């Protein structure tokens, strides 16, 4: 019989609806039951694409004997960390305080009021590698709760005090200047893997926000080392197994230092942020290899990760048929059977498919050597090998599609959709791909219609049901994305919606007295502490995105308070950014925007008119991260609350561009070549 999770929409929670465990979703019902029955709460947090979450579920939560112990001793609560980042953040911090590390699945034991007192991550069914068996933990913790309540309460009180102190902590403020950014660059260079690209060793994560900062550093200062770090990392990832050479898109991370063996799950946010980094590298360098990765990754998202309604799904699992990576790997015999002996050998030589394999006896496709070298070693022309590779990719993808697909998490999350929407809008604008801009617009329409109730943004949607009040990251990332969509379409509606979200951020998440953003709204469900995540992790923190979008919007709409709040956030974390830049990739980009003295471009003309489009194309194709732009239609006059357009007119009846810097504007230009010269870029 299904448990209480059967009515949930989260695919992760629904994976557990038939467990013999009497699971509750997070909410007041579980807390009330724990108080009424004086039971501790067992909180289990994970997500649908998490391999070890599946392992623990199979070993313990599907086991009748283990479930009996859990049901007898605890009120059991299951949480999808992607739906409830607030709950995840509070209790992950607690686990890290208790154990020195964190991860998923996360297992936390709480008092009936929700205060944590003990926790960890994965527990095996039997003692293993120094870890106790899960059932041993269950009985020992409950016994402590019954027989040593004073000690448990003291532990909970001490942990709560630490959590509260962390939530209220104020890092020392500092100065946001070029010297700060250079210190951050030097610290990143010290962590850089000069052989393989990326930062640190195995397991290795892509870190696209740090690459974005380094690309900005190169643009602002001309520092060639920063550009080399970006380019080597992007090139090595694009040829490694972390990239799906048949279907496009990136896996979550590499278990080795050289990007070969991925953890095979594919997350929407990784592909949004990585494809944007490749887009910017293409804009900055003109290298078509980066553009190809963008094309293939966005094609993958449209093909496999887009709902009929226009939203983007959250993730694809690492496992299929109970095995990690099974969907993606190949043998020599499989390739040769599909392509024939001659073409199979050429394809295998290029993609490193061998008899011994590189992953549990099979091969993950990776580009073992450049095409020219592979062709020379095989004794064929580059053209011949190129044709074989292209044809082989199509054949293998078609064959792979007949396999059992990995599970897909088809919930729609506002924050993650905003990241993907942003990338589609910006890439469509830069590459002149209308279908990408259309995809961005469909997603924006979907989010603003289906994930907004009575003017309030919501977090998650699935099968027609939207729920959970949106968090700071949802508001900030959507405001940022709609600003990018405005740049791609010049439709005033998107600018208005972006500004409205910024106003909502300040109203519901900003504490003026304390000078901080919180992750949850002022009227959100209270937790044991009000979470406040300052660090950029796999996704940018709401704090970082809020600072960045407020600074950009301030330039566009002339709102001083936006700029004041954005600067306060930067200054409050300046010292931390300089010391530990690995945790502040996106915030460093916002700091670069502030330090660079951004330029503003005011276009006057009609979208779709050849003269107007020729001018705006100069801006769209170039890598200009610290330029903001607006467009005014001559028949409408200056729109309200966009001072950049005040007094801007056509020049002799022609579309014009006005470039402003440090609050001073130059004479308008009507020729694309003149605009390109003023902006210091190549004409297109």
What does this structure look like?
This protein has 684 residues and is α+β, with helices and mostly antiparallel strands. It is 50% helix and 12% strand. The chain has a 5-stranded mixed beta sheet with strand order 1-3-2-4-5, sandwiched between helices. Strands 13, 14, 15 and 16 form a 4-stranded antiparallel beta sheet that branches. β6 (253-254) and β7 (262-263) form a beta hairpin. The longest helix has 20 residues, at 149-168.
Write the topology of this structure.
Blueprint: H1 11-14, E1 23-25, H2 28-37, E2 41-46, H3 51-61, H4 64-73, E3 75-80, H5 85-99, E4 106-110, E5 116-120, H6 134-147, H7 149-168, H8 178-191, H9 208-221, H10 224-239, E6 253-254, E7 262-263, E8 266-267, H11 268-285, H12 288-304, E9 315-316, E10 319-320, E11 323-324, H13 332-339, H14 341-351, H15 371-378, H16 382-400, E12 408-409, E13 412-413, H17 414-431, H18 434-450, E14 452-453, E15 456-462, E16 465-469, H19 472-489, H20 492-508, E17 510-511, E18 516-517, H21 542-557, H22 560-572, H23 574-579, H24 585-595, E19 599-604, H25 610-621, E20 627-632, E21 656-661, E22 664-665, H26 672-679
Parallel strand pairs: 1-3, 2-3, 19-20
Antiparallel strand pairs: 2-4, 4-5, 6-7, 8-9, 9-12, 10-11, 13-15, 14-15, 15-16, 17-18, 19-21, 21-22
Helix pairs in contact: 4-6, 5-7, 9-10, 9-11, 9-24, 11-12, 11-17, 13-14, 14-16, 15-16, 17-18, 17-19, 17-25, 18-19, 19-20, 19-21, 20-21, 21-22, 21-24, 25-26
